[in-house]
Design a protein that fits this description.
By secondary structure, this protein is an alpha+beta fold. It has four helices and four strands; from the N terminus they run ββαβαβαα. It starts with a strand and ends with a helix.
């Protein structure tokens, strides 16, 4: 399920992709929507029975600007945000932080 809610400057997309294949399909489809181009923030959380790190890698490869790691309070055991944040290699983490800082600077310039 994908839901798109659109305001003049805010677009919110909700998706329940449960496996890397489905997340890849969602990212591919979203990349084709011209109105959704630009800064991208993902709130990500998943349970331990899912392929969390493969999905985080997909988000990284699709150049998502910011990933906010979250945790479900219901259902089976979920990954803690701190565990998910430690995923990238040190080099990947440095690159990711630099991209996040650049994205933050760009957002501040538009305010």
């Amino acid at each position: 399920m994908i839901a798109i809610v659109s305001q003049p400057l805010t677009r919110v997309i909700l998706d329940g992709a449960h496996v890397p294949f489905n997340l890849a399909a969602v990212l591919h489809d979203l990349n084709r929507i011209r109105e959704l181009a630009g800064f991208c923030v993902v709130v990500f959380g998943t349970t331990r029975d899912k392929q969390a790190f493969e999905m985080l890698d997909l988000l990284r490869r699709h150049r998502v600007d910011v990933v906010i790691c979250s945790r479900s309070t219901s259902g089976p055991s979920s990954w803690a945000p701190g565990e998910l944040r430690r995923y990238p290699s040190e080099a990947d983490a440095r690159d990711y932080i630099l991209r996040c800082e650049e994205a933050r600077r760009q957002l501040q310039q538009t305010d």
